[in-house]
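Dear U.,

Please find below the material for section 3 of the report. The protein was modelled together with nicotinamide-adenine-dinucleotide; I have listed the sequence and SMILES used, followed by the predicted complex structure.
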Amino acid sequence: MEKNSLEVREQGQKIYDIYFRDSFEDLMEAMSGLGLSGRKVCIVTESHVAPLYLKEIYDLLNPVCAKVTTFSFSAGEAHKQLKTIEQLYEQLIRNHFDRKDLIVALGGGVVGDMAGFAAATYLRGIDFIQIPTTLLSQVDSSIGGKTGVDFIQYKNMVGAFHQPKLVYINVNTLTTLLDREYASGMAEVIKHGLIKDREYYHWIRNHQSEILSKDSQILAEMILKSCDIKRRVVEVDPKEQGERALLNFGHTLGHAVETLMDFSLLHGECVAIGCRLALKLSGKRGMISEEEVKEANALFDVFHLDQRFDRLTAEQIIETTKSDKKMAGGHIRFILLKNIGEACIDLTVSDEEMMEVLEEELE
Ligand SMILES: NC(=O)c1ccc[n+]([C@@H]2O[C@H](COP(=O)([O-])OP(=O)(O)OC[C@H]3O[C@@H](n4cnc5c(N)ncnc54)[C@H](O)[C@@H]3O)[C@@H](O)[C@H]2O)c1
Ligand SMILES: O=C(O)C(=O)C[C@@H](O)[C@H](O)[C@H](O)COP(=O)(O)O
Ligand SMILES: [Zn+2]
């Protein structure tokens, strides 16, 4: 695989690099600018990822860093909670971590969001790097510095913007990922095409069989393309004052479904549900054609992103959406599509419009 990288910039200054690799071979080289010899490192990971990749990362870091400790919690969204963060703080304190020390997030989006949040808040902020191991975390969550936890059942309700010092993507880690988790990542990939890049959306459609069979060349290309789309959005609006909200396409109703289904559906599965509903709403408003709505739905179908959520009612979903973060001055901030490849922020979606699309979907 070609060794690629992308620079993420803010106000013209490089903040960090994203490395695209098919092994961990040059991880230490990528980290060489971080002055590891004088730093303690805590590798944060979880129970599924630890047996697969922790030893390799530990063995690479151990000879180089002042000290390496590990913190592993039980896998799953249910543990993306402040309780887990408290346990991590305790371990960092016991090991005398100070401001110059470093956290390494090794895992999917749950690890990355939590390790990043601990790094943002411990001693008012220490450095961290991302080593994402799921498709979803490689194309989305490891980039852009959104970190945080769920609070009780409220999705990502407590968090901070804190940028990593490096994102190191080893595409080969996806060989151990379950198909359902892989498909969940595809929801965010399709989202990137739908909101920002029509050509990319058609590229995904045209390469669906290689993507399904995890062709390593196509997969590497897809991850790079998706990261580049997300990079461009977060560079212009790192703290979601405007344009970055477009990355929330499918998340307005998607997050409500994720919460109400008690996290039995995966994040990407709920994003796909939310995208389908937002597409339908955009179609009903005459913004995009019925043909395009059908086509986009068919692409979600290809990746088996067609989960049912009919044990919920439309009323419940609308009510839960209102207690999410996506409220702006009393209005729900909705992302709609003007075209395939072009999204917009809309504050005028009414309860009646949401009710109509939800009821049709729940029929
Ligand atoms: N910060 C952001 O910008 C952002 C963006 C999108 C999603 N998210 C968050 O990310 C989370 C979802 O991330 P996710 O889909 O990576 O979930 P996850 O971290 O729970 O990982 C999914 C599953 O795959 C397992 N796993 C991880 N890597 C593996 C590997 N290489 N081989 C085998 N199994 C592996 C995990 O143990 C877990 O069971 C959600 O909490 C979501 O809110 C954050
Ligand atoms: O990076 C962003 O910005 C996103 O919105 C990406 C989303 O895919 C991701 O799920 C994010 O965590 C949602 O953020 P939230 O602020 O709506 O919780
Ligand atoms: Zn998401």
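For the text of the report, you could mention the following: The CA atoms of residues 61 and 68 lie 7 Å apart.

Regards,
Y.
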